Amino acid sequence: MVATISNDKIPNNVHLSDDKRLQRALEQWQPNFLSWWKDMGPEGFQEKGVYLRTAVSVDTDGWAVFDHVKMPDYRWGIFLTEPEKDRRIPFGDHYGQPVWQDVPGEHRNSLRRLIVTQGDTEPASVEQQRLLAQTAPSLYDMRNLFQVNVEEGRHLWAMVYLLHSYFGKDGREEADELLQRRSGNVDKPRILTTFNEPISDWLSFFMFTTFTDRDGKYQLKSLAESGFDPLSRTCKFMLTEEAHHMFVGQTSVRRVIKRACELMKEHSTDDLRPHGGVDLRLVQKYINFWYTASLDLFGNEISSNAAAYFAAGLKGRSDEHKYDDHVARDGTYAMDVLAGDTIHKETIPLRNAMNEVLRDDYVRDCESVLSKWNAETRDQGIDFQFKLPSRRFHRKVGQWSEAKFDLAGHAISEAEWDQQKDSWLPTEAERAYVHSLMKQVIEPGKMANWIAPPARGVNDQALEYEYVKL
Ligand SMILES: [Fe+2]
Ligand SMILES: [Fe+2]
After folding, report:
1. Residue 46 C-alpha to ligand 2 middle, in angstroms?
2. For residues 159 and 174, is the Cβ–Cβ distance under 8 A?
3. Which helix or strand (DSSP H or E) is residue 434 part of?
4. Which one of 101, 139, 200, 407 is CB 3.0 to 4.6 Å from 389, fit for a cystine?
5. Which ligand lies nearest the alpha carbon of 209?
6. 375: Cβ contacts below 8 Å, ≥ 6 apart
7. Ligand with smallest separation from the Cα of 234
8. Is the Cα torsion angle 141, 146, 151, 156 positive or negative in sign?
């Protein structure tokens, strides 16, 4: 199918040119978005041509075009996957009833909150990453960063489309506020803590796109099940873009590991500092930090909100079809529960455990990522295997945040934590070392010393291609 393109500026398949109300709302919002992008988007590169992919339709074999574009001229569009004929609410109390094309009055506030929380993460990550290009390890990587940034911008558009189209005046106010909060700002911070930490080195960026964007994948998958059909269709299309963000993370960390292995063999040592590499133990510490920070984003283990969202048919499980019981009214979940300083199994009503169910899927997915990274060390003949820490380790949200645990998930005292934490998480000195490696490399095809080249270029282009015209 061919997308309706109402004008050059906003590619879309929502009949924007016929929708006067939406046009008016977007006309007001768009200039504010652009001035936000210019203030808070990639600093110092707004006038450069970047080889970017732009979504122009939802057609699976031609949904995107590639071209050099200046980022403020990027055509942020609005796309929903095609409606599924006779789609039914796939879970919860309304299981089997026709999906909603409008917001049901009784679920209005909950839906708005879900959309705003998701929407807030999109500009937040652009803000967190705005200085990174100044230290890009190659033009290829710089281009990938900008691709992720403009697509997070489009994800913001996607959520704003829902707010403008379905939530009237308070939707418009929420859309304005999405441009007013700022990552890390004391007075007007972004909603979720993890999105308020600046990302000032590329190892962190690659960990963020591996682990934090993967949280995004599971949030989107659970919203793609929603009985509110426009939200479902919006999130399904966002997932196609999200896959690229995780590709950037996963393949780039693998390139860091590959380079570390090469340096280890070349210099017969695992101390790579004198040779300008990131040693594997330090990569493991970054995993420990970013994986656990991302686990926090799934929320409390036992959650009445999650139960209410599931019951109402607003937010489901990822891949709801793989379950037999879609109502889950009588189901249970055997959960580790912390009581004082002991941990025991408790039987929790399944609906109250939905955050944990989603987290379980996420953990499994992360394990498969680590197995790819471990394949790299194995291929290189290096005896080192990465491991995910226990989900109790280093948590700031949920029951495990109330005590201290080691990497294996054993409870430890505060004193033991203080003694050992520097061997588990990156220290100030290690972060400073990683920072010291961050030097911009802009000769086409060249890579910084700490990272191996990628297996191939973008969209069949050579590695030496001028991905960003500086
Ligand atoms: Fe996103
Ligand atoms: Fe993303």
Report:
1. 20
2. no
3. helix 428-437
4. 407
5. 2
6. none
7. 1
8. positive
Record the pTM. 0.96
Ligand with minimal distance to 213 CA? 2
Measured in angstroms, how far is the CA atom of residue 239 from the centroid of ligand 1?
A: 8
Q: What percentage of residues in the chain have a pLDDT greater than 70?
A: 98
**What's the pLDDT at 303?**
98
The order of strands in the sheet holding 64-70 is: 64-70, 49-55, 468-469
Q: What is the DSSP letter of 454?
A: P
Q: With a cut of 60, say whether residue 1 has pLDDT above it.
A: no
Q: How many angstroms does the Cα of residue 321 sit away from the middle of ligand 1? A: 24
Structure tokens at 43: 């600093």
Query: What pLDDT was estimated at residue 56?
Result: 84
| Averaged confidence pLDDT in the chain | 95
Q: How many CB atoms lie within 10 A of CB 159?
A: 26
CA of 242 to the centre of ligand 2 (A): 5
Residue listed under structure tokens 């990552």: 183
Residue 190 pLDDT > 70: yes
What helix, strand, coil percent values describe the chain, rounded to 5? 55, 10, 35
Q: What is the pLDDT of residues 348-402, one digit of tens each?
A: 999 999 999 999 999 999 999 999 999 999 999 999 999 999 999 999 999 999 9
pLDDT given for residue 3 in this prediction: 36
Which domains does the chain carry? 16-469 (1.10.620.20)
**405 alpha carbon – ligand 1 mean position (Å):** 31
Euclidean distance between CA atoms 245 and 122, whole angstroms: 12
Element (H, E) at 320: none
Mean pLDDT over 123-137 rounds to: 97
Pairing mode, strands 342-349 and 468-469: unpaired
Distance between CA atoms of residues 260 and 281, nearest Å = 10
Report CA(267)–ligand 2 centroid distance (Å): 37
**pLDDT(5) > 50:** no
At 7, is the pLDDT very low, low, confident or very high (cuts 50, 70, 90)?
low
The pLDDT-based confidence of 170 (bands split at 50, 70, 90) is very high
Cα gap 391→1, rounded to integer Å: 44
Query: How far is the CA of 306 from the CAs of 19, 103, 248, 360, 444, in angstroms?
Result: 34, 19, 30, 15, 48
89: Cβ contacts below 8 Å, ≥ 6 apart: 95, 96, 97, 98, 99, 100, 227, 313
CB 226 within 8 A of CB 211: no
Residue 4 confidence (pLDDT): 36
**Å from CA of 160 to ligand 1 middle:** 13
